[in-house]
Specification:
Elements: H1 6-9, H2 43-48, H3 56-64, E1 67-74, H4 82-95, E2 100-104, H5 112-115, E3 124-126, E4 129-131, E5 133-136, E6 139-143, H6 159-171, E7 178-184, H7 191-202, E8 221-227, H8 231-247, E9 251-264, E10 271-273, H9 275-290, H10 294-304, E11 307-309, H11 311-321, E12 328-331, H12 339-347, E13 351-357, H13 359-367, H14 387-391, H15 402-417
Parallel strand pairs: 1-7, 1-8, 2-6, 2-7, 8-9, 9-13
Antiparallel strand pairs: 3-4, 5-6, 9-12, 10-11
The structure holds adenosine-5'-triphosphate and magnesium ion.
Magnesium ion binds at residues 82-83, 106, 111, 184.
Length: 430
């Protein structure tokens, strides 16, 4: 078993255990020469060691050659739903019968153990390497979160150390043959992104992409970019697309997340302004308005208004009007200005789909469950104890209005990578 101590996590080939605090990493051009190397016991070895091609790349290439498609879920912006999309994409692909791996390279903020319901799990090792943690027999997960003794403890690592662990995840984890390796990345275009892209690009896939889009590179690596509708997010996300261009990573498409709020009616509350209480003031205001004192009228009427909770009455009326129907409410939370659409057309990338804000999806993430529901049919939220049911405080709600949107995105991902599900007779090994 791999120890859950940070000491072992830090035992990376790139940064010797006894290295100085700001070690640039043994593979760096600065190894043995940087200011931080002064006094380090490894200094002379590092300074004289050959700096040729990274020897890890051959091992990474071998492991990754058994992985057909590597999907990097990226965004220039934090908190837009990368981990949620990664988790639900992995669940959905596995449910369709693909062999799926989910790799969390958000070293400082790993969300994947929680979102896959794997908190407290540990990584084991065998002669084949580190074994990932399995959700199902065709869904394997790896995250630094499995290696930390205390989930609340901050991981304060500089780039070389993060890079070393990411390489280990690719090189030392026994992923086996996979149809898809979904990689959940931290926000931005930093060390982690450069390292994972370089490592994956160095690995050539044995898998062809029959019928697949030309956007999928020879290494089988491509990016799914996540944004939200606001300009502030899209501005940062444009940089991510530019990063992909610069490093030669094809963009499979863009997911616009949190695109409007869709929520079951039961979750809404309604208030009414008690105009009866306001009537005398309103009448007085009307008189004022007639005499031209419009400013005073507004103040008088506002002061007299009382908000009353009429949720029960409204729900009863709607239930009477729409018997047996499940009603949802759609609201545009963020500006629906089409910033993501514009970005896609400006930058020549395709929109994979729009996922609304959906309490069921947030609940599924918190519960570590798929919104696609348990094997054998049904949707998670439709069942007692399902994701959405838990999140709704025990009230059974639909798996979520996000479900059709998410599934349409999964369809496109599968279509654009040329994959087939078990139902179609074509996953790995079939
Ligand atoms: N469409 C959605 N509907 C409801 N909740 C959502 C939706 N998308 C994401 N969330 C919630 O928003 C929060 C942030 O999502 P998530 O952690 O996936 O973002 P992230 O981009 O991975 O963040 P970070 O940049 O910190 O890694 C989570 O609590 C998640 O459950
Ligand atoms: Mg995340």
């Amino acid at each position: 078993m791999v120890s859950s101590s940070t000491a072992e996590v830090s035992a990376l080939p790139d940064v010797p255990q006894n290295a100085n605090q700001h070690c640039p990493g043994t593979s760096s051009d600065q190894a043995g020469k940087a200011a931080a190397c002064a006094g380090c016991p490894n200094q002379s070895v590092c300074a004289t060691a050959p700096k040729g091609p990274d020897p890890d790349l051959a091992a990474i290439s071998e492991r990754m050659s058994a992985v057909k498609h590597k999907l990097l879920v990226l965004s220039g912006k934090g908190g837009v739903g990368k981990s949620t999309v990664s988790a639900q994409l992995a669940f959905a692909l596995a449910r369709r019968g693909f062999e799926v791996g989910l790799l969390d390279i958000d070293i400082c903020g790993p969300s994947i153990p929680k979102m896959l319901g794997l908190e407290g799990q540990e990584v084991h090792s065998s002669n084949l390497g580190w074994s990932p943690v399995y959700v199902e027999d065709n869904l394997a997960v790896m995250s630094i979160g499995f290696m930390l003794p205390n989930p609340d403890e901050a991981v304060i690592w500089r780039g070389p150390r993060k890079n070393g662990l990411i390489k280990q995840f690719l090189k030392d984890v026994h992923w086996g043959s996979l149809d898809y390796l979904v990689v959940d990345a931290p926000p931005g275009t930093s060390d982690e992104h450069i390292t994972i892209t370089q490592c994956l690009q160095s690995a050539t896939s044995t898998a062809a992409t029959p019928g697949g889009s030309s956007s999928v590179s020879g290494s089988g690596a491509s990016a799914i970019i996540v944004t939200t509708p606001q300009d502030v997010a899209v501005i940062d996300v444009r940089k991510e697309v530019s990063f992909c261009r610069k490093v030669g990573l094809p963009v499979l498409g863009v997911v616009e997340n949190m695109a409007g709020l869709v929520t079951p009616l039961e979750r809404c509350s309604f208030t009414a302004t008690d105009t009866a209480a306001a009537a005398p003031a309103a009448a007085a205001a009307a008189g004022d308005a007639a005499s031209g004192a419009s400013g005073a009228s507004g103040a008088a009427s506002t002061a007299a208004e009382v908000d009353v909770d009429v949720t029960q009455q409204v729900l009863a009326l709607l239930a009477e009007r729409f018997p047996g129907q499940r009603l949802s409410v759609l609201a545009e939370v963020f500006r629906a200005g089409g910033a993501a659409d514009r970005m896609c057309s400006d930058m020549g990338v395709q929109l994979l789909g729009r996922v609304p804000l959906d309490p069921g999806l947030g609940a599924a993430a918190d519960a570590g469950l798929p919104v696609v529901g348990p094997p054998g049919g049904g949707e998670a939220g439709d069942t007692e104890g399902g994701a959405a049911a838990g999140g709704a405080g025990g009230v059974a709600v639909a798996a979520g209005p996000c479900l059709p949107a998410l599934m349409a995105i999964v369809d496109k991902v599968v279509g654009r990578t040329g994959g087939k599900g078990r139902e179609d007779g074509g996953p790995t090994g079939q």
